[in-house]
Write a structure and sequence with these properties.
Blueprint (H helix, E strand, L loop, with lengths): L5 E3 L2 H12 L10 E5 L5 E6 L2 E19 L5 E13 L23 H5 L8 H32 L10 H10 L7 H6 L3
C-alpha cells in the first residue's frame, strides 16, 4: 500500500501548484513547496514560494478508497484515505473540530447527519425490564415444550412393520433368473 493524502487548497494556491507541476516555474521562489505539522499533529504550515498558509488535518466522515491502473482496464486498490489536509487562507480561523462534516463529493454533504444512523437514546432501566420479560417468556416456552414432548412420547405406540405380500415375493423370484433389458439394448438388436 502507498501512503496517500488529500490536500484541499484555496483556488489561488491551486493555480500556483498546477503551474508548478505542469510548467517550469518562472522564478526560484515558486519552486519551493513544503508541508510541516506542529507538535499536536493536527495543525501546521503549507509553504509555496515565500507564502505561508495555515493547514489543519481533519478526519473524513468515511473512508475513501483510491485506485490506480496500469493498463486502463484493471484497477488496483492503492490506499484507504481517512483524513484530509485543509489549507486555509492566512486570515481564516482554524476549525475547532477534528472531523470534517462533509465528504469529498456533493452527495456526501453532511454525511454523518444524513447517511449514518444515530445511536438510539435508551433508558437502561427499560432495557433491563425488557430483558427480564424476554427471559421469563423463554423459560415458560421451554417448560411447555418439555411437557408437550413428554406427553407425546407417552402416547406413542410402536407401529409394527408390514410383512411383504406373498404375490410380490413370487414375482421377484420369477424375474431373478433373466436380466432386465433397457430400451437402448432392444434397439441394438435391429442392426
Amino acid at each position: 500500500m502507498e501512503e496517500q493524502f488529500i490536500l484541499r487548497v484555496p483556488p489561488s494556491v491551486a493555480e500556483r501548484i498546477e503551474r508548478l507541476l505542469n510548467e517550469d516555474p518562472t522564478s526560484e521562489e515558486d519552486k519551493s513547496l513544503d508541508l510541516s505539522f506542529s507538535e499536536n499533529g493536527r495543525s501546521g504550515n503549507f509553504v509555496i514560494g515565500n507564502e505561508h498558509f495555515p493547514v489543519s488535518l481533519l478526519d473524513l466522515p468515511c473512508v475513501v478508497e483510491s485506485y490506480k491502473t496500469y493498463d486502463d482496464s484493471a484497477l488496483v486498490k492503492t490506499a484507504d484515505i481517512g483524513q484530509i489536509i485543509m489549507v486555509r487562507e492566512p486570515g481564516d480561523s482554524a476549525p475547532d473540530v477534528v472531523e470534517y462534516r462533509h465528504g469529498l463529493t456533493p452527495p456526501m454533504r453532511d454525511a454523518r447527519k444524513r447517511r449514518f444512523r444515530r445511536e438510539p437514546d435508551l433508558n437502561p432501566e427499560l432495557v433491563q425490564r425488557v430483558e427480564k420479560d424476554l427471559l421469563n417468556i423463554m423459560s415458560v416456552n421451554e417448560q411447555e415444550e418439555d411437557a408437550d414432548g413428554n406427553a407425546r412420547n407417552a402416547n406413542k405406540k410402536v407401529a409394527p412393520t408390514p410383512a411383504p405380500k406373498q404375490a410380490d415375493v413370487a414375482e421377484a423370484e420369477a424375474n431373478a433368473g433373466a436380466p432386465e433389458r433397457s430400451d437402448s439394448e432392444e434397439s441394438d438388436d435391429s442392426l
